[in-house]
Amino acid sequence: MEITLPFTVGAFTWSDTFQVTWTADPSLNHGQFAVWVRSSQGDWYWMSPLIAATGKTQYSHTINLAGLPAGTGYQVIVAYEPIANTSLWVSWATSSGVFSVETVVPEITISAPAGTASYLQTEQVTVNWTTDQDLTTGEFALWVRSADGAGLVRHHPDPGCRGSGQPLHHQSTSDRGAVGSRLPGHPGLPVPWSMQATS
Q1: What is the DSSP letter of 134?
Q2: Paired sense of beta strands 91-94 and 32-38, if any
Q3: pLDDT digit string, tens, across residues 52-98
Q4: Smallest Cα–Cα separation from 161: which of 175, 173, 153?
Q5: What is the C-alpha separation between 190 and 192, in angstroms, rounded?
Q6: How many CB atoms are located within 10 Å of the residue 63 CB?
Q7: How confident is the model over 100-146, as pLDDT tens digits?
Q8: HEC assignment per residue over 54-117
Q9: Using CA of residue 188, residue 193, residue 197, residue 199, what is the dihedral sign?
Q10: pTM of the shown model
């Protein structure tokens, strides 16, 4: 077998897909192929489903990069199994091309609070926001900023506000009683936070 695509260096993001193609010589009319993506650290990621050998000499499969860690030096691996579901892989091919997977910074949209409202310091305000992708790592933080921009107080969300890979909707309750003064040493949003949104 020989992998014909990818054959050059490429760069992709988590939301990308691309085609891998390979040839089988001689043609095979039984068994099946499996496709993996292998990182430069030796981690393997199976690209389901299995592909049946149908007597052709050329095959293709879609590589979905969703969920792969950001990194460089990825390669595609194809293996052939003459008797299906026996794990007796007898022929292997590795792509000559390598590629990288880059992080896509998520977009955050705050849906509540919206408009103008007044609250007492003893009240609580529910904050709702959405992200444009499923986030399985990291965490969220909330700040309350005064109208003149001088006061900035951080609110620590509930533990459930960590990235969970579940619905794209998130919610937290901000304690207005905690908003009474500036947060010392924090005139703006701390640098490590990769994406911010303002209500």
Answers
A1: -
A2: unpaired
A3: 999 999 999 999 998 888 899 999 999 999 999 999 999 999 999 99
A4: 173
A5: 6
A6: 21
A7: 998 777 788 888 888 888 878 777 778 888 887 776 666 777 777 77
A8: CCCCEEEEEEECCCCCCEEEEEEEEEEECCCCCCCCCEEEECCCCEEEECCCCCEEEEECCCCC
A9: negative
A10: 0.57
- Residue 34's identity, in one-letter code, is A
Task: Kindly state the tokens that stand for 46.
Answer: 């199976």
97 with 5: CB under 8 angstroms?
A: yes
The span from the CA of 189 to the CA of 140, in Å, is 13
Amino acid at 33: F
Q: Which two tokens mark 88? A: 């007796």
What is the Cα–Cα distance from 100 to 1, expressed in whole angstroms?
Answer: 24
Nearest to 97 by CA among 160, 26, 3, 196: 3
**Closest CA relative to residue 53, chosen from 24, 15, 89, 76:** 24
For 8-18, b where at least 16 C-beta lie within 10 A, e where not — what string?
Answer: eeeebebebee
